[in-house]
Amino acid sequence: MTGLGGGPPVRGGGRVRSAVAADPAEGTLDLVFPAGGRVPVTRLLGEVAGAGGLGVGDERVRDFLGAFGRRLLSPALARRHPELASLGFFLRPGELARVLDGVRGGQSVRVPRGLVFHIPPANVDTVFAYSWALSALMGNRNVVRLSPRAGAVASAIVRALRETLDACDPEVAGAVAATQRIVSYDRSDTVTAALSAACDLRVVWGGDRTVREVRRHPLAPHARDLAFPDRSSFTVVLAPAWLAAPPATREAVADGFANDSYWFDQAACSSPRTVFWVGSRAADCDAARDDFTSCLALAVSRRGWTVDAAMAVEKRVATYGLAADGAARSVGFHGNALASVVLAGAEAAPRRWLGAGTFAHARLGSLAELAGLVERKDQTMTHFGFSRGELEELAGVLAGRGVDRMVPIGSALSFHRVWDGVDLPAEFTRLVTVLP
Amino acid sequence: MSVFTLTEAEREAALLPRLVALTERHRRSCPPYHGILEAIGSAGPYARVADLPWLPVRLFKTHELRSVPEEQVFRVLTSSGTTGQTPSRVYLDREAAATQPRMLAATLRVVLGERRLPMLIVDSRSVTRDPTLSARGAGVLGMMHFGRDHTFALDEHGRLEGVSVERFLARHGGEPFLIFGFTFMTWLHLRGLGLDLSHGVLIHSGGWKKLAEQAVDNAEYRRRLGEECGLTRVHDFYGMVEQIGTIFLEGPDGDGLYCPDFANVVIRDPETWEEAPPGVPGLIEVVSTLPTSYPGHVLLTEDLGVVHGVDDGAWPGKRFSVLGRLPRAEARGCSDTFGQAVA
User: What is the value of ipTM here, to two decimals?
Assistant: First the structure.
């Protein structure tokens, strides 16, 4: 979902903390930021309830985020965790200013929502930082629930946040420490219920089941949910354009596609699962698909993406299953890392995860045929070979039936302030109408 | 007559035409299987057993795979393996249902002899009576066919019933008798009995995961049961519901699992999928001529194993060990990986 970057895949190793399970009766949690320690949820809420005085685009928060971003871009850290460089890039002062510009103007005064409770996914380690940073930038008090299963990247982020806090101006540190909390707790209805009841906005990432689970806990009447459920993504390539592209372009696009796909084992909601080949001639589509697969196999081996035996078996189970269902006409393997499935028809495009590095291919006569295929669940459409006009026309034809993002191949994982069709900075604020 | 007679070369020669015929039969009669072979481009002729297309065993959990019309299905076997997982479904017609216990009996005859032996079961009777029969319960029920005068060593709460075991031994302890249980249960309960089991033949199965946690391997298991109970005839076995009737049985010397004449194993390198040489671990592929009503004759398991030797042990053919199970692949993605952890 986040963190396009260079370098080999980085697997989460360490855990954020050992996380003693919170006692449900007590409702305690582990504080991870600004300091460590174990606190009852009621005390935590008491601490952040009155804290504040932050405004939208508060200078102190901008200072802090800028310093945090610079720390993430330090060569040592960026080398070890390339996805942190993407986050650091996102937090540059100029970028933050652009975000703020995006919500400025109009007749109303924009104000923070208040207390925002973030529940990020366990396995995409950087999402919580984007979600939190944008909300903090908008002047909110935040409680971020970090999974005890979060990995090494999450640990590195927390460490960098603490170091930034230690190093920054006391006034900035004071404002951040008073209003921002990162916590960790294992299953605890009491804690989730208390945080849900207290917040003004709840942000839930990480799949249908998580969203359903969290929704059991009521919000205050005025509060609202921002939910990011399971999504699925696909790619469209204009076959003649692919065939006409120079080798260097094809190589670069294949690299970008590999990045989009392999970074989070192809399970990020914006990673493509099906590639639609658009062309009026079947032979073009087949030739383009075969050439693309060869380029992709090279890109994958250049970058050293591999899968282990368990993943290799997973992919066999998934692809053989598609063949057994009659959905796949052919199943081919370029080593264990890359599996290609030629679908019996475009309507068989799988939405579910088929294992890291498994791509279904189908042919479309024209881009407009997508209108009959797209579902609400479809999030990102990465593309190659189409003009802005063609893509805008398609967006109009789709009319919100699905697809929230159309971005070039290689940008699937780049975080943007508008995510899943939601303008996050706008959602993280309210408008006060002022008529003189 | 023993079913542990064929050398590797003889076995290859005997199995190849029968397995090829089964491949073609299932290709004709099982449309999903046909679809898979088409998609992966697998067409004969097949020169070696190792060239035959394999199915991942998990497909029996996700798909209905049968080569007989629905009205000819005589029994549907299900087994969940691990709790919470979708069970495998294995479809037997009348013929397959009749063959599998017969071949299992033939396999066990080599260690149990011709007659049914008195049988001590290291488990509680309740596992066989659970309406949702567990794999353990099904295993016990299946083995009970091979014994008589069944005595359960554990009470309903899983506690050892020393008195019943003593009574059993008073009746049968001086002649050959059968002991059956899951590997971990037999380790847990037999050693504490302090009774002479030297006339017993112990058949056990179920895997070494729990014992490995206690740093107990097969050699230690055999040594201690020998020292503490006088058990010298001890046979582990490996088998799965997806190849019902076929078991790979530990030889008398404890030097590996052996294949009955109608089955074999191919250890595959999970990177190249080629057959791994003896001594090199890989994924276990099991082949058997018994699955006639469903395409389970060539299956890739999710177990890791290694061949120790070929035609060099007590019985001919390959001897191998199961080293453990592949972990389930986990993705790093953002979907639903969080559900159990929150709230």
Answer: 0.91
pLDDT at position A25 is: 54
**Low-confidence residues of chain A: pLDDT under 50:** 1-24
Quote the tokens at residue A49: 């309830």
Q: Do A321 and B336 touch (CB under 8 A)?
A: no
Residues linked to residue B237 through DSSP beta bridges, in sequence order: B205, B249
Mutate to test the interface with A, among B273, B334, B337 (most CBs of A within 10 A): B334
Q: How many CB pairs under 8 A join A and B?
A: 176
Q: Considering the entire predicted model, what is its pTM?
A: 0.86
A293 occurs within a structural domain: yes
Question: Are B334 and A1 within 8 A, CB to CB?
Answer: yes
Instruction: Tell me which of B61, B63, B86, B338 to substitute to probe the interface with A (most A C-beta atoms closer than 10 Å).
Output: B338
Nearest CA-CA partner of A161 in A185, A198, A136, A186:
A136
Supply the range of the domain harboring residue A152.
Answer: 28-230
Q: How many residues does chain B have?
A: 343
Shortest CB distance from B337 goes to which of A122, A322, A355?
A122
- Residue A102 resides in a domain: yes
Pairing of strands B200-205, B233-238: parallel
- Considering only alpha carbons, which residue of chain A is nearest residue B328? A310
Domain count within chain A: 2
Residue written as token pair 């999504």: A231
Is A380 inside any structural domain? yes
Question: Which residue has 């209003």 as its token pair?
Answer: A179
Task: Judge whether A194 lies within some domain.
Answer: yes
Instruction: Give the model's pLDDT for residue A315.
Output: 96
Instruction: Let me know whether A331 and A204 are in one domain.
Output: no
Quick check: B270 and A313 CB within 8 A? yes
Task: Please report residues of B whose CB lies closer than 8 A to that of A268.
Answer: 332-334
One CATH from 3.40.47.10, 1.10.10.10, 3.40.50.12780, 3.90.110.10 for B8-325:
3.40.50.12780
**pLDDT of the residue at A153:** 87
pLDDT 10s digits, B50-99: 999 999 999 999 999 999 999 999 988 887 555 556 888 999 999 999 99
State yes or no: pLDDT of B105 exceeds 60.
yes
Which tokens sit at A405? 């993002």
Nearest Cα residue in chain B from A215: B343
- As a whole number of angstroms, the distance between CA B244 and CA B259 comes to 14
- Tell me, yes or no, whether A166 and A94 share the same domain: yes
